[in-house]
Specification:
heterodimer; A: about 280 residues; mainly alpha; MetI-like fold; 14 helices; about 0% strand; globular; B: about 325 residues; two-stranded antiparallel ribbon; 2 strands
């Protein structure tokens, strides 16, 4: 046997060993989702059975029918609330991050350094530091139980500005100056020259922002206390506390709340993964 | 405002552009400064001020509700935090529990996370290109799910009668088991509550995807020639991992460890949904404690003081982080 054949053999062995660990590990990692989905098709009688079954003995769609027809759980409204908050925040955060990232990268003005350092230092301040006064401000402005209470205070994302500044630095000055010579206005230059250059970053950061907003729990829990303005994560815990005994219904509701958007996130996960690795960013 | 020198090269349109640029900067930077003043500086200062008052939104007072029903108490909240006697006020005892549980949680989560994600990233990196993506997706999937959903799923797995875990243990032992993983405060392992372990399992399951993708990206950045050289020298799998890969990834590992630590310190969602701090406050983490005192018991002055302590803890970790980030490694 040649040296390369030995090395090849060893390599295959190594890869097979990897599968030997990865495949069982994957099955364990998928188990909670599987358990949730399978349980959502079980009848109340079967879910109460001791010991529990894994695969439903009797496959029923009744739980989904009950949850979707529950007048106390108008899922459409909660989907709408979550979508309004997440989309509005994506749009405004992408706008402010790209605009100010570009300005910090390409312009000089008095106090620029101080302002940029201030924004950078905001990244160090955990959200709970402004949680209580933030709530009091919203209460004074009458924005408790108002979706705007989750949108207006979220217009600036320090990390977004920092990220887009990095990207905007690589835009050639000649490109911008050429447009200026042609008489283009500054805002026009931002919109039609800078923004397209930032395209991939907009996609990546937009997906991340959407995901964090869509899954957010603590701040919406504080601001949205009336039922009909709540977002999906809050209504899901509310529903599961209502149906302590009917776990089958909770699981059906969980599937309806989690899976559709999880599937969409899955389709765009390339950008989300890119965003996380790009920055070492954490939620 | 001064216009950047690079623009001075183009003399012809200088004055016109100068004015336009000035207008653009004024029109964008001044709203930004005003916004930051109102939505970040003002709440920050308010939050700090609250910690020095016995403030509750139920009481009335003067400016911003300070004074009268919400008297100034100076450093009293912070002095109380140092009261370790048995007759300390309830909120002080709860605060001590919060600090203890949060440290315990974070100190357990970080090494467990790295011990799983590093080898897992290495294994995923070593399989064929085609299936690599499938494995990465499977382990990354929980990151995309809402943590509330994760908590509900795992809460059901740990259910004493209907849960999957007890069913599996029952199937292997041949006996019916009804362990109340999340509710029995008498269950401990090495003095650590079992309910806290249960939360750590759910938390790790969701959180490990972050470090996994960071490590996979870092592994892809290691030149193939280094791995080949190690193989030619006869290094086996473990040697390659422990002697070559881990040292090369050290800067990434340190960064990931600190980011994991910071987010573990701020855990809330999974704990609130799975145990709500129970049983017997065994899983009452600091942020849950702040949330309770501020919004359930309306003791916002006290909760603001606890927030400051928590902020200082997280800040000190962040400062360590920037120190590490400064020393960049090359290979």
């Amino acid at each position: 046997m040649t040296a390369s054949a030995i090395s090849y053999k060893r390599r295959t062995l190594r890869i097979n060993l990897a599968y030997l660990i990865l495949i069982p590990a994957s099955l364990i990692a998928l188990l909670p989702f599987t358990w949730m989905i399978l349980s959502s098709f079980k009848s109340l009688k079967e879910i109460r059975q001791i010991p529990p079954t894994f695969v439903p003995q009797e496959f029923t769609l009744e739980n989904y029918r009950t949850v979707l027809n529950d007048p106390d759980l108008p899922l459409g409204i909660f989907y709408r609330n979550s979508a309004i908050i997440a989309l509005a925040n994506v749009v405004q955060v992408l706008f402010t991050s790209s605009l100010f990232g570009y300005i910090f990268a390409k312009f000089e003005f008095k106090g620029k350094k101080a302002l940029f350092w201030f924004i950078l230092s905001l990244m160090m301040i955990p959200h709970q530091m402004t949680m209580i006064p933030g709530y009091l401000i919203l209460a004074k402005l009458g924005l408790i139980n108002n979706l705007l209470g989750l949108i207006i205070p979220a217009a600036i994302d320090a990390f977004g500005i920092f990220l887009f500044r990095q990207f905007a630095l690589s835009i050639p000055n000649e490109l911008l100056d050429a447009a200026r010579v042609d008489g283009a206005g500054e805002f026009y230059i931002y919109r039609s020259i800078v923004l397209p250059q930032l395209g991939p970053a907009l996609a990546t950061f937009g997906m991340l922002t959407f995901m964090f907003n869509w899954n957010a729990y603590l701040w919406p829990l504080i601001v949205l206390t009336e039922k009909n303005v709540r977002t999906l994560p809050i209504i899901l815990t509310w529903f599961s506390n209502q149906q302590v005994d009917k776990t089958n219904l909770t699981m059906a509701a969980s599937v309806l709340v989690i899976l559709p958007v999880l599937f969409i996130f899955l389709l765009v996960q390339k950008w989300i993964v890119e965003g996380i690795t790009l920055s070492g960013l954490k939620g | 405002m001064t216009v950047s020198s690079r623009n001075n090269k183009l003399g012809r349109t200088f004055s016109g552009r100068n004015a336009a640029e000035k207008r653009f900067l004024t029109g964008t930077i001044s709203p930004l400064v005003l916004y930051l003043a109102f939505w970040t500086i003002f709440p920050l200062l308010w939050g700090i001020a609250l910690a020095f008052f016995d403030y509750s939104p139920r009481q009335t007072g003067g400016f911003l509700g300070f004074g009268e029903g919400n008297p100034f108490v100076g450093l009293l909240h912070f002095q109380n935090m140092l009261n370790f006697t048995a007759d300390a006020p309830l909120e002080v005892q709860q605060f001590h529990i919060g600090i203890k549980v949060t440290f315990l949680f974070a100190i357990l989560v970080v090494p467990l996370n790295l011990l799983i994600t590093l080898p897992l990233a290495f294994l995923i990196e070593s399989v064929n290109e085609g299936v690599k993506g499938i494995f990465r997706t499977i382990f990354f999937l929980p990151v995309l799910a809402p943590s509330v959903g994760v908590a509900i799923m795992w809460g059901f797995i740990f259910h004493p009668q209907r849960g999957l875990l007890n069913a599996l243990i029952g199937a292997f032992s041949g006996k019916l088991v009804g362990i109340a993983w999340l509710r029995d405060s008498s269950l401990t392992v090495w003095g650590i509550p079992v309910a806290l372990f249960a939360i750590i399992v759910a938390y790790l399951w969701q959180d490990m995807g972050y470090n996994l993708v960071i490590f996979i990206a870092a592994l892809q950045g290691i030149p193939q020639s280094i791995k080949d050289a190690a193989r030619i020298d006869g290094a086996n799998w473990w040697q390659l991992f422990a002697r070559i890969i881990v040292p090369l990834l050290m800067p990434t590992i340190l960064l990931a460890a600190i980011l994991t630590l910071i987010s573990a310190f701020q855990v809330f969602d999974i704990v609130q949904v799975m145990t709500d701090g129970g049983p017997d406050d065994q899983t009452q983490v600091l942020l849950l404690n702040i949330y309770r005192y501020a919004f359930r018991y309306q003791k916002m002055g006290w909760a603001a003081a606890v927030s400051i302590v928590m902020f200082l803890l997280v800040l000190s970790i962040s400062i360590v982080q920037t120190r590490f980030l400064r020393s960049e490694w090359e290979y």
